Amino acid sequence: MQPLSHRKRIPIPFYGLALVLLIPLVSPANSCTEQEKSSLLQFLDGLSRDSSLTESWRSDTDCCTWEGITCSPDRTVTDILLASRGLEGSISPFLGNLTSLLRLNLSRNLLFGGLPLELFSASSIIVLDVSFNRLTGGLSELPSSTPARPLQVLNISSNLFTGRFPSTTWEVMKNLVVLNASNNSFTGQIPTTPCVSAPSFAVLELSFNQLSGNIPPGLSNCFVLKLLSAGYNNLSGTLPDELFKITSLEHILLPSNWLEGAFHGIVKLTNLVTLDLGKNELSGEIPDSIGELKRLQELNLDHNNMYGELPSALSNCTNLVTVDLHANKFSGELAKVNFVNLSNLKKLDLLSNDFTGTIPESIYSCSKLTALRTLQILSDSRSLTTLFIGSNFLHETMPEDGIDGFENLQQSADRTYT
Ligand SMILES: *[C@@H]1O[C@H](CO)[C@@H](O)[C@H](O)[C@H]1NC(C)=O
Ligand SMILES: *[C@@H]1O[C@H](CO)[C@@H](O)[C@H](O)[C@H]1NC(C)=O
Ligand SMILES: *[C@@H]1O[C@H](CO)[C@@H](O)[C@H](O)[C@H]1NC(C)=O
Ligand SMILES: *[C@@H]1O[C@H](CO)[C@@H](O)[C@H](O)[C@H]1NC(C)=O
Ligand SMILES: *[C@@H]1O[C@H](CO)[C@@H](O)[C@H](O)[C@H]1NC(C)=O
Ligand SMILES: *[C@@H]1O[C@H](CO)[C@@H](O)[C@H](O)[C@H]1NC(C)=O
Ligand SMILES: *[C@@H]1O[C@H](CO)[C@@H](O)[C@H](O)[C@H]1NC(C)=O
Ligand SMILES: *[C@@H]1O[C@H](CO)[C@@H](O)[C@H](O)[C@H]1NC(C)=O
Question: pTM for the full model?
Fold first, then answer.
């Protein structure tokens, strides 16, 4: 910024002054351009069913006034928001001619065919949501010489997309923050290119696909990743140490895969809120240091091969809402965990484990009261709504007249086998 005294000395030519005076006189256009109008009408042409759109999208009117269209003050189209309009047909590549389009939302329609490259790689679009349609084919590979694209949010979930994720395409998506590709039929590996090319990449949602291979160590380049979701795929191998370096992670959801091994390093992820590793082949114990995960709300490790005692440190995870350890080989005394501070706990599922032998038989066989007391440690968890502990405590009798103190208890699978 130049000091004012210097500016004063710069001579202003006469025509320069004239230009300055003219600027306020340039009024904004009062209608969208014919070219933008025609691009939108091409899109309409591609639809076989457009619900009521034809009534509003009339060629003799300003397209900025059409249903679902928003323009900037200079009458260029910035938003096309047509979610849940019963639109049927294909998505016209002509929409790519709208050079100021920022947001395109065609979610929950009946659109089929491919996602035009012209939109996917548009030079203005920052939010693209085509979720819940019937789009097919793969995502195109863009030449790596393509200039950086502004796309930040891509939601292509719940379609019929197939094939592998293109790698060079992510290289040019330098502004990507969210990739939501869940519920398709993508194959190949979890893509890690966005971790390197997009410094703000935060959400990777890939559940319900056919991805295979390991959890790639390259994910550790995702320095601000908050959510990693790839459940219901065909992933295998152990959780790599590199995963435990992504300290920004808040949600790890990898249920229903073929993951194996232990995962002690997980306790480094002190921002974790959700850890869902259920329905895998994991083994090992819950590490003592689990108590470090102070923000943890959901711990799902059901249907694995985990064993060992529940560490008493679990009582330090005071934000826990759900603990599902159903169908493992955990053993030892449940009483080791002091539930007194887990006041948010709503669901505790301990079904089908081996807690049996280690709860002293004397305590149970002597009276209901003892069992009741053991369970009444839980009664300070006022909001507890679900408790499953059956088929653990073999040879023991459980209280027949309900469990006192659980005001909100809705379901209790407290069958015992004697
Ligand atoms: C508009 O888009 C179509 C399809 O991508 C393209 O063939 C055409 O040349 C574009 N027209 C203009 C005027 O940019
Ligand atoms: C698209 O529109 C639907 C329906 O209004 C909305 O739920 C969804 O969040 C929108 N998508 C984005 C990315 O904003
Ligand atoms: C699609 O995903 C984006 C980002 O995750 C989200 O904002 C949007 O709401 C989703 N759309 C729908 C229809 O749920
Ligand atoms: C992904 O999109 C689906 C809609 O298909 C939405 O329900 C879900 O919340 C989105 N996931 C994320 C992480 O934004
Ligand atoms: C997956 O997509 C189908 C078809 O759009 C939809 O009916 C189903 O609810 C989706 N499933 C999930 C888990 O989002
Ligand atoms: C799952 O991955 C394994 C290799 O780990 C492979 O043999 C199998 O064919 C895959 N299954 C599917 C349905 O992709
Ligand atoms: C709970 O955390 C406190 C403070 O970090 C620590 O001193 C204590 O040993 C922990 N309790 C258990 C049971 O690990
Ligand atoms: C429960 O919380 C209180 C207050 O923070 C603390 O003094 C006490 O040691 C905690 N009890 C357990 C078993 O962690």
Answer: 0.84
